[in-house]
Write a structure and sequence with these properties.
Length: about 425
């Protein structure tokens, strides 16, 4: 019997089941691989997110607006009497001192002089005297304010050396003293103006009494028009020689070192601002930032149409510059600046990126979030924990353009999701974008 397998055309019967087993095994492995691939393909993938952190840092709530500079005191010099004005030799930008002659005016003889005109001139003198007394009272009041500010600063410095007062409080007192000194300078300037007005009123009364036909005063003696305050010539309103009437404006002068800023605030913003708030001035063209203080807010609002055509109710906020004049001597009248009025400052506040906080809605509330929590804490964040995003209700106190101040719900050091995608839900697996 031939036992050579190469010569036998029919293999042994036990080799067929072995081949079938191998085929079945390969089929099962292929099926398992396909099932695994399907499970992997349809299983939820981690959501890519960006990470932020909850930290304790300085938080500032501010009102940001554009403003413009203006002179604190602008003086329009007018002709005291009717007459012939000589050509003014001054030009815009020329410096003048109090009492310097600005122009020459040759009075014209009056055509008719009656008792009523004399009484009107006398009333002007009495009004100017009352204005001078009022200016003197303001000077006395501002001197008292300066003494009070210096006293408060001295006490604050004593407490600061012992560690009882924060550095921000000491800075506030120093700025308050500078603001009081600026007010004193303005009141002294007003007193000079009142004195000048009184002198002009007295001169007009004397001219009305003495200028009669045939009198020495009616011969056309030139009358010098003098500067009421020190400063620079801003604008010439009458440049050529000619006859002018009494009260006609001749030129404007002002002290460019006495500037203030006017910012148009929305009325809803103005309600959050308080007199004395610190102001950061930027975008003025020079290097560094300038310090200011909110001096006042005008009581009357006005309607202004925005660039988008929306009617807005705005109100003027007056800001005093408390930085040394040498730091902003390049500024002039009508210059554009950016102001930032600090309405709230917290040195140690729990803050997260403002883009991490979102309103807590019903679709986010899952996995046991109660209705009471929704009512008490309408804001929430996603906290990163063990590779998953956990919904965390928080209490939002305030927010600005970059930070959100939280009073409850997080602790410093926790990681949160920044710009959470709308599909993110509580408990979903996440991965850091770019990580």
């Amino acid at each position: 019997m031939n036992t050579d397998p190469h010569l036998n055309p029919h293999p042994p019967s036990n080799t067929l089941p072995r081949a079938r087993k191998r085929a079945v095994l390969l089929t099962m492995l292929a099926t398992l691989a396909a099932v695994a691939a399907l499970i992997w393909a349809f299983s939820p993938r981690p959501v890519e997110v960006e990470k932020g952190s909850a930290v304790r840092e300085r938080f500032e709530l501010a009102i940001e607006e554009d403003g413009r500079t203006r002179l604190r005191n602008r003086f329009t010099v007018s002709a005291p009497v009717t007459g012939l004005l000589s050509r003014i030799a001054l030009r815009e930008g020329d410096a003048v001192q109090t009492g310097d002659p600005l122009a020459e005016l040759t009075p014209a003889p009056p055509s008719l002089l009656d008792e009523r005109a004399l009484r009107g001139q006398q009333a002007r003198v009495e009004s100017a005297q009352a204005g001078l007394q009022r200016a003197g009272a303001r000077v006395a009041r501002t001197r008292v304010a300066v003494e009070q500010a210096r006293s408060d600063l001295w006490r604050t410095e004593q407490l600061a050396t012992k560690g009882f007062i924060a550095a921000t409080r000491l800075e506030q007192e120093r700025l308050a003293e500078q603001a009081a000194l600026r007010e004193l300078e303005a009141s002294l300037a007003d007193q000079d103006i009142a004195q000048h007005d009184l002198e002009q009123a007295r001169y007009a009364l004397t001219s009305a009494r003495d200028m009669r036909p045939g009198s020495p005063s009616a011969t056309g003696t030139p009358l010098p028009v003098r500067s009421p305050a020190s400063g620079r010539v801003l604008r010439l309103l009458q440049t050529s020689e000619g006859n002018v009437a009494a009260g006609a404006p001749l030129l404007e002068i002002g002290d460019i070192t006495q500037l203030e800023i006017v910012a148009e605030l929305l009325t809803t913003q103005a309600l959050r601002a308080r007199i004395g708030d610190r102001v950061i001035i930027s975008g003025w063209g020079g290097s560094g930032l300038l310090e200011g203080r909110l001096k006042s807010i005008e009581p009357a609002a006005f309607t202004k149409v925005s660039a988008l055509g929306v009617e807005e109710q705005r109100v003027n906020a007056i800001i005093s510059i408390v930085s040394p004049p040498a730091a902003w001597q390049a500024l002039g009248d009508g210059y554009r600046v950016s102001v930032r009025i600090l309405t709230e400052v917290l040195e140690d506040a729990l803050c997260v990126p403002v883009s991490a906080v979102f309103p807590l809605s019903a679709q986010h509330a899952s996995h046991g979030t109660s209705t009471q929590v929704l009512a008490d804490r309408p804001m929430a964040v996603f906290v990163l924990a063990d590779g998953r995003a956990r919904l965390r209700p928080v209490r939002l106190s305030a927010r600005n353009g970059q930070q959100a101040h939280l009073s409850d719900g997080l602790t410093a050091g926790e990681s949160v999701v920044v710009y959470p995608p709308p599909t993110l839900r509580d408990g979903m697996r996440v991965s850091l974008r770019g990580g």
